[in-house]
Amino acid sequence: MESAPLVEVNAVSKYFPTKKNLFGKVIERVNAVQSVDLRIHPGETVGLVGESGCGKSTLGRTVIRLYQPDGGRIRFQGQDVTHMKHAHLRALRRQMQIVFQDPFSSLNPRMSIESILLEPFVIHGVGTHVERKKRVCELLELVGLDSDCRGKYPHEFSGGQRQRIGIARAIALNPSFVVADEPVSALDVSIQSQILNLLIQLKKEMGLAYLFIAHDLAVVYHISDRIGVMYLGKIVELADAEDLYTRRLHPYTQALIAAIPVAEYREARRDRKIPTLSGDIPNPIFPPSGCSFHTRCPHAQEKCRTVVPEYRNVGSEKKPHMVACHYV
Q: How much is the pTM?
């Protein structure tokens, strides 16, 4: 029997005002996230990919209520948190955390590593002073750092080490859900695999569920159980990682996967057919009518320009494959 979802997102939307009239009414806005549905089960990693500006990070931050959603409903551990007040939401913060993209700007340069890692325990009133200090040493060792470095400051560490500290802070209170917002994109390629392996290890040891956000499809495939592809604020395809790569259905997904660099002989690369995307990403303030991808899709028909495609399951009940395209 399948477990109940840990995180349940129903028709969630988020916009940012860009222009108001004299009376303060919003007359122009960026539609960052538009009616997104998503389920994440305990211990599962759901990857989220797409081009810059498609709304990935906004969705992640809205799910854990760093942003207030402008529509839809968010449930966490069966509890509706959509409009939960700060006092009640604060208690849930122990169970849902985030790892930010930039490991330098996310750490206070004026605080020692020990102070940074002690902060979650102080805020939530967890443990005695001695217990907190002991836990800080355990956290540093858990993420592959020497506990003797706890008196140092963020600028004394490399990018990869700072990201390990950010991860240690996120798991300090034993959460069940972590949003990893492009946690390896600012790191050297040689360090990325180490951080990915650390996240996989922590998932196994702590039973974590992740929403893993990234640009690199190869990275997402390595860590994810399911992958969602996002375009202009909407998830256009969502399936098991293996199924998405072997049976990509949406034209946008096909183009993203085909664009992954592959080491091939020059002759083989010449014969490789890569679906090309024409034009630029539309302005999210004025999104296209119908299918939002029709302005760049090589297979677009008249119906695509006027009718919004239904987001439906074209797989099986046990192994769903969700896609939003008229011609799949």
A: 0.91
Decide: 214 and 47 in contact? Cβ < 8 Å: yes
**What is each CA distance from 72 to 37, 144, 241, 288, 297, in whole angstroms?**
9, 40, 26, 22, 28
Q: What are the beta bridge partners of residue 237?
A: 229, 323
* Residue 18, φ and ψ in degrees, nearest 5: -120, -20
Q: What is the pLDDT of residues 96-111, one digit of tens each?
A: 999 999 888 899 999 9
Mutual orientation of helices 159-171 and 189-206 as an angle, nearest 10°? 20
**Could you give the CA distance from residue 119 to residue 318 in angstroms, rounded to a whole number?**
43
Provide the 8-state DSSP code for 291.
S
Reading the block at residue 103, the tokens are: 């490991």
The percent helix, strand, coil of the chain (3-state, each to 5) is: 35, 25, 45
Element housing 179 (H / E): strand 177-181
Q: Which two tokens stand for residue 118?
A: 């002690």
Quick one: which of 142, 137, 101, 135 has its CA closest to 121?
135
